[in-house]
Structures are given as C-alpha cells and as structure tokens.
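G., the chain you wanted modeled:
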Amino acid sequence: MAREFSRTRRIGQQLQQELAFVLQRDMKDPRIGMVTVNDVDVSRDLSHAKVYVTFFEEDPQVIEAKLAALNTAAPYARTLVAGRMKLRVMPELRFIYDASLVEGMRMSNLVSKVIRDDEAKKGHIGDEPQEGQREED
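Predicted structure as tokens:
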C-alpha cells in the first residue's frame, strides 16, 4: 500500500521551506531581489530538484536576468540549504520561472472586468424606458 506522502514529496516540501528562508535571509545578490518559491519537484533518486519561483516583476527581460542570476547562485544556495537539512544527498537545484500565479491573476482580472461590464450594461439597459412607459420631465 502506497503512502499518502512519498519521501520525495516530503523532502520537496522541506526543501521549499529551507530555500525560501535561505533566499530571503542569506542570499545577498541584488540581482535576485524578491523571489517566491512556489514548489519544488525532487527526482526519485534525489539527485535533481526543479525549483519553481516567481518574482514581483512583469518584464520578461528582467525575469530572465533574475532567473539566470538564481541559476548561477544555485550551487551556493545548495550549500546553504545542505547545512540546514540532514540529507545524505543534496539535490542539484535548477530554478524555473512559474508563470501560473501571474496567469491566474490575469485570468481573475479578466473575469472581474467582464462581470463589471455586464453589471454596467444591465444598469444602463434598466435606465432606458421600456415600451408603454413615459418619461416624466
């Protein structure tokens, strides 16, 4: 019977927490700035980990530069996290930009805009006199 949470998933969750802490407190690279660790996907043999991150930037060039800086600093981040976690093998980190949060916010804004437009149209249509009604001056 399979466990509800596999070992790789538990390690991924702990790695996510430790990376978030290390990136906020210990990494002093100004090129990285504010970064959010959304998820960590660890391979079954614990040799590699994909770290999904987002930034508070929307410019694709800035995002690419920050992602490149993170991937350059990945060995240092790996060393810092290895000191905080008790693992025999520390996965090699690979940072990947996660656009799902930004895309979700964009979709939410679109839905809100459509709802506002519909309500405005209903209000505008309701203001017009219908057949059989007269406007009073």
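The beta strands are 35-42, 48-55, 92-97.

Shout if anything looks off.
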